[in-house]
Design brief:
With 491 residues, the chain is α/β, with parallel strands linked by helices. It has 2 domains: 17-306, TIM Barrel (Alpha-Beta Barrel), CATH 3.20.20; 308-415, no CATH class. The protein contains 16 helices and 12 strands. An 8-stranded parallel β-sheet has the order 1-8-7-6-5-4-3-2. Strands 9-10 form a two-stranded antiparallel sheet. A two-stranded antiparallel ribbon has the order 11-12. Helix 10 (304-310) packs antiparallel against helix 12. It is globular and about 65 Å long. The two termini are 35 Å apart.
Length: 491
């Protein structure tokens, strides 16, 4: 780890792409520092920023000035200001970016509808002004700032969410389908062409997933919507965490002519945090490229690096043991007010604290008290003495480390998987050794839909070994964790 790669874009190879789910808190620092410097009042004292960064822009991996660079990320409309007329300095990181250098996928905020955060009558044709304002705002925001965006889906599970159902007026699965179809029609008729859109597939079980697809696939079909059809797919609900269902879906999509080169070149898996799924999605991507579309790209996201920081933790490395459980390792971060004047190199401290410490470009240039900045008598911006030694910029520094380490873990896992190492989850050794990636490769070597589906169904027990994911980020800790929650909202 002495020579850490700084250009993670070039390290990506032909793997499925992990998209860091960009935090509004993180973007806020970059924007505020830009605007503050313009009027002579920097948001963060330049002396507070480690010199290795060369200023706040060194934190921006979407820019050529970043200490380390990575082209791809995701941001959610549910966390953004949808008012395009307002000068939103806190959103500069993505609003004012070089689109030739970076690429962003927009999540539509359907989760906010499901959880009751976006109130309004979301039933098809309701005429609700509040829902329409949000619907149109999401579309305009996507067209203005995103390269790809997800349509505004209403999750299939909303009727099981008391808050979501009450706020959205959606009381059944079919009302969620109808409301989503209504939003789809609006997006197709009113998009300006600057952003490409993904058709979101929902469903809580196989039957719902098949039904949802049957009702939604026309929106991606050039025959139904010539020149206006959606440009790819987003896998939500059971589709994103059930390998059996996901494989059936992509095979059916391919034979329905809905994975065509230049027409549907992207598929995103929402909220996918388990490390083993990075290799599974790479295997599926390679299969689709071989059989249906040589330009096809699979992406996936999770907010784990940011939530980990909010919980007062940091990535300390990864575990890639042969036939073992592969995972990111997260442990409590240094947090002690007695260390407020301790200038020991950060990596040196972490080497002594953890069994296996994985540095990042930013930690190589940090001192311990760049993070543990508060002494026992220091007060925060609100004039309060806190339980933690971290100030708000400490979170920013640790988020940068955690995002880098998560990315490196995903890329390194794919690399060693290609060399023949594997986790127990992706190999069945009870009888003859059967590897998940080998069966996936065989599926896409068959040019017959029925035979492909039969092969998929015959390996049901193998797919059941590949545990799904819902974004687990580790046990919540105190001090730095509770301090973050009191200062900033990520909902």
């Amino acid at each position: 780890m002495t020579n850490l790669p700084l250009d993670l874009t070039s390290e990506q190879n032909d793997y499925a792409q992990f998209l860091p789910a960009l935090s509004t808190f993180y973007a806020l620092f970059i924007g505020r520092q830009r605007r503050g410097l313009q009027i002579g009042e920097p948001y963060v004292d330049p002396a507070r920023i480690p010199s290795i960064l060369g200023g706040m822009e060194g934190m921006n991996w979407l820019d050529s000035k970043g200490l380390w660079r990575y082209k791809w990320s995701l941001h959610s409309a549910g966390h953004a200001s949808l008012d395009l007329q307002k000068d939103m300095f806190r959103e500069d990181q993505y609003r004012d970016r070089d689109k030739n250098y970076s690429w962003l996928l927009g999540d539509s905020g359907g989760f906010q509808i499901g959880k009751g955060k976006w109130e309004g009558d979301w039933r098809a044709g309701s005429g609700c002004e509040k829902a329409h304002k949000k619907r149109d705002g999401v579309l305009r925001w996507m067209d203005a700032f995103m390269d790809y965006g997800m349509i505004l889906d209403i999750p299939a599970w909303v009727d099981r969410s008391p808050e979501g159902s009450a706020a959205s007026k959606i009381s059944s699965y079919q009302e969620a389908v109808d409301g989503t179809a209504f939003n789809n029609e609006y997006f197709i008729k009113n998009r300006n062409g600057n952003c490409k859109f993904l058709n979101v597939l929902q469903g809580e079980n196989f039957a719902q997933a098949d039904d949802w697809y049957a009702q939604m696939k026309k929106f991606s079909d050039p025959k139904h919507y010539p020149g206006e059809h959606f440009d790819g797919w987003a896998m939500g609900g059971q589709n994103m965490c059930d390998l059996h269902l996901a494989l059936r879906r992509v095979v059916i999509l391919g034979h329905d002519g809905l994975l065509e080169k230049g027409k549907q070149d992207l598929m995103h898996f929402l909220g996918t945090s388990k490390l083993e799924w990075a290799m599974v999605l790479t295997a599926i991507q390679r299969g689709i490229r071989k059989q249906f579309n040589e330009n096809f790209q699979i992406t996936f996201d999770c907010a784990s690096p940011f939530l980990c920081t909010a919980n007062g933790q940091q990535y300390t490395g990864y575990r890639l043991e042969q036939d073992g459980k592969w995972s990111y390792m997260m442990e409590n971060s240094p947090d002690n007010k007695a260390w407020s004047n301790d200038t020991t190199p950060y990596d040196q401290i972490c080497d002594s604290m953890y069994d296996n410490w994985m540095p990042s470009p930013i930690t190589k240039g940090m001192k311990l008290n760049d993070v543990t900045i508060y002494s026992p008598t220091c007060t925060n911006r609100m004039g309060n003495i806190t339980n933690t030694s971290w100030d708000s910029f400490s979170y920013m520094l640790m988020m940068n480390h955690n995002v880098y380490t998560h990315l490196r873990s995903v890329q390194e896992a794919n690399r060693v998987f290609d060399e023949g190492r594997y986790p127990y989850m992706l190999v069945d050794e009870k009888f003859d050794k059967t590897e998940v990636k080998d069966v996936i490769a065989r599926i896409f070597e068959i040019d017959d839909k029925d035979k492909q589906l039969e092969l998929i169904d015959s390996h049901q027990k193998l797919w059941m070994m590949v545990v799904g994911t819902r974004g687990y980020v580790g046990k919540k800790t105190v001090n730095a964790s509770s301090q973050f929650s009191s200062l900033f909202s990520e909902s």
